[in-house]
Design a protein that fits this description.
globular, Secreted protein, signal, FAD/NAD-bd_sf, 13 helices, FAD binding
Length: 472
């Protein structure tokens, strides 16, 4: 029997899955329909690629485990990514006030363009001799309802006159084909139906423009003005993310009825109308390097594959093919990495053909999805005109607690640390119910609320020097 593994999709999830399988398989073939760039450039098949991405601490740890010989963290930092401490390296305005900056760093995250991250990881994975990428369009799965044995694919014919249909045998197939995956249709072709899906769509639109970092502002902290899900109005947010090449990536996001515009003047006005105008004040004196790019591929969609009554051996679904998240929460890449690490752990223990492997991996991957899904959907259901869900009684109870936690985190290090750990996917939601966290929430903020951003005197000088808006 073949010991070949086939991965559908050469995006981040697919390449990490290939890394997870490389030691257990004789060969790993990654099938990708799109042309892949030779360097850190945007590609057509990634609609969110031009917008801000954060690699959370939990996702980075999973990548380090999957690629221990190369250290993705070191590769990304060497390529220009920025390492940002949640405790001291960012400022954030929430619905409950400003977060403080603490002497303790807390978890860190990496900030860079998505194009750079994909290119660095793909290059690192392909250094493994067992892994190769082939350009092909997957059209279905082969096998039976109990056992997937490979994929059907379409490739261009040598004469250029059409395409050839072929089959590729595999001991294990991983669908990491992203938001456009047709896994439900392929399962139905095998005779597996009844897969439950849910979509929650706040109508969020992303708008991003890249600026040159002004001279002297190279160490200015990452800046976020969070949306307020509880105001009864459309959510509006903005952030300044330092990325490679001495640039600021400025991403705005607005839910249905509060969408950011694509014109440069409207883009700036939108930033100044956020709950705090700090993003607009900073960029009003910065040099723009690009036009404004919009994207609407932002809905949350989850396929509950782990709940299927029958699941075939030889098939695993990971990444956006399993669940997509509103990108404003920055979870998708890290959830994909955690799923790939779980796959790697399972194949290392039992091999590609271990009985029940596919079902175990599908259930394990679902645990990481569940934590991220609860955070994303638990906020999106509060925005007006969200489609696919409204707050339930349970949502209201959870929201009351999460708002008290966020309020406490503006002036309590223990509350802030718990929030960092869970939002970074370092710890599961149970961290929020630990006795020390419960006590911190009960005590509330131990310090008075901040009336302005927690900037140093040097940073306040930078803000004043850049501000062309006339704001006080």
């Amino acid at each position: 029997m073949t010991r070949r593994a086939v991965v559908i999709g050469a995006g981040l999830a697919g390449m990490l899955a290939a890394a997870a399988l490389s030691d257990a398989a004789d060969e790993v073939i990654v099938l990708e329909r799109d042309d892949l760039p030779d360097g850190p450039e945007h590609r057509k098949g990634l609609p969110q690629g031009r917008h801000a991405h954060l690699l959370l601490a939990g996702g980075l740890a999973a990548m380090e485990d999957l690629l221990p010989a190369t250290s993705p963290r070191r590769l990304l930092l060497d390529a220009g990514a920025h390492e940002i401490s949640l405790g001291s390296g960012m400022i954030g305005h929430t619905s409950e006030g400003w977060y403080r900056r603490w002497r303790h760093d807390g978890p860190t995250m990496l900030a860079c363009s998505r194009a750079l991250l994909d290119w660095v990881i793909r290059t690192a994975v392909l250094d493994h001799s067992k892994i190769q990428i082939r350009q092909a369009q997957v059209t279905g799965l082969t096998g039976t309802p109990g056992q997937v044995t490979g994929v059907r694919l379409s490739t261009s014919s040598p004469s250029g006159s059409g395409s050839d249909e072929t089959e590729l045998e595999a001991a294990l197939v991983v669908d990491a084909g992203g938001r456009g995956s047709r896994i439900t249709h392929w399962l139905e072709q095998l005779g597996i139906s009844g897969i439950t899906e849910r979509t929650v769509d706040s109508g969020l639109v992303n708008a991003t423009r890249v600026y040159r970092v002004p001279e002297g502002a190279e160490r200015f902290p990452m800046t976020i003005v969070y949306a307020d899900p509880y105001s009864g109005r459309p959510g509006r947010s903005g952030m300044i993310l330092p990325v490679e090449g001495g640039r600021w990536m400025v991403s705005l996001a607005g839910t249905r009825g509060g969408e950011p515009p694509a014109d440069p003047d409207g883009f700036l006005r939108y930033t100044l109308d956020l709950p705090d105008p700090i993003v607009g004040r900073l960029i009003s004196g910065a040099e723009p390097l690009t036009d404004v790019h919009l994207s609407r591929s932002t809905h949350n969609t989850r396929r509950y594959l782990e709940k299927a009554p029958h699941w075939p051996e030889g098939l695993v679904v990971l990444g956006d093919a399993l669940a997509t998240f509103n990108p404003v929460y920055g979870q998708g890449m890290s959830v994909a990495a955690l799923g790939a690490r779980f796959l790697g752990d399972e194949v290392r223990d039992g091999g590609l053909a271990s009985p029940g492997l596919a079902r175990r991996v599908q259930r394990g991957a679902a645990r990481s999805v569940e934590a991220a899904w609860a955070m994303a959907v638990g906020q999106d259901v509060w925005y007006p005109d969200t489609r696919g869900g409204r707050p339930t009684a349970a949502d209201r109870v959870v929201t009351r607690y999460s708002r008290r936690l966020t309020k406490a985190a503006t002036g309590s290090y223990r509350a802030a640390a718990a929030l960092w750990d869970v939002s970074s996917l370092v710890s599961g939601p149970e961290r929020l119910l630990h006795p020390t966290t419960l006590l911190a929430v009960a005590n509330g903020s131990l310090l008075p609320p901040l009336s302005e951003p927690p900037l140093s005197s040097v940073e306040r000088g930078i803000l004043r020097g850049l501000d062309r808006t006339g704001a006080v």
